[in-house]
Amino acid sequence: MSVDITPTLASPSSTTLPVWLRLRHSRRTTLSLLMICAALLWVSPFIWMLSSAFSPISFGNGMASLWPRWPLTLDNFRDAWQSADWLSLYANTLFFTFGTFCVQLMTITTAGYVFACHEFRGKQTLFLLFLVQLMIMPVVMMVPNMMTLKTLGLLNTLTGVMMPYFTSAFGVFLMRQAFMNVPKEIEEAALMEGCRWWQVIFRVLLPMSWPSILAFATVSITYHWNEYLWPLMMLNDPDKQVLTVGLVSFAMAAESGGQWGVVSAGTLMVCLPLMAAFMIFQKQFLKSFGFSGIK
């Protein structure tokens, strides 16, 4: 008679894990639960906004509820749209946001090219002084900027609102780093072929620095789309207001009547373009920040 001496593997349920492994597993589980709770806490205002925007109109009832009240409706969006001149607000915001970015693209690429590809006396000192702008709060410069724009006769104009943002120290730094990563031989070859300096920038360097441009575009467009205090101080004409200022004026009137659903719908209408753009171009955004070295 033959005896089977093949060793049998113990089932996972019958195996006793070491103490250190059980502690490690419990720490991971606790950390995961804490991260989930933090994420839910972070996203709870957005969930409340969605719930309130699509719930039936209710004056003060269920204001703090995170769960929608059925049946879902679009009445809040209809009332919000009729309560303000949204077409004018969207047009002014698009002009302010993308107009500023287009001018910034010209200035940061030119300055970045000079700092990256040219040598001149005092270059490092000038670049460090230029980066000092990153340490100055924009609020500090509001009064001097307003006095300058008053002298130029640009108060209460969208052009005046845009002018302080026509250059960006962060953008210059980003483009300088991107241009420094391009091999010097490529620029020299383009110059030998008869290209002007501006042709080298826009036909050679910029196509090779596309991730950095997209990263800066994301930061610039998001910042200026959400800008509130500077347009509020500069613009007195309601026909020239941007979305954030118009939303506050609209929300103050709606809040006085407890119309939280209408306020939430208006807020969602302001956020929706940026949210849609991020969802559509999510992969490109994440890749651009990775390749540009932003973490």
From TrEMBL:
SUPFAM superfamilies: MetI-like
Annotated GO CC locations: plasma membrane
Transmembrane domains' residue ranges: 31-50, 94-115, 127-147, 153-174, 200-225, 260-281
Presence of the UniProt keyword Protein biosynthesis in the record: no
Principal location: membrane
ABC transmembrane type-1 domain segment(s): 90-281
Subcellular location field: Cell inner membrane; Cell membrane
Alphabetically ordered keywords of this record: Cell inner membrane, Cell membrane, Membrane, Transmembrane, Transmembrane helix, Transport
Pfam families documented for this protein: BPD_transp_1
UniProt key word Membrane: yes
Similarity comment: family membership: Belongs to the binding-protein-dependent transport system permease family.
Protein name stated in the entry: Binding-protein-dependent transport systems inner membrane component
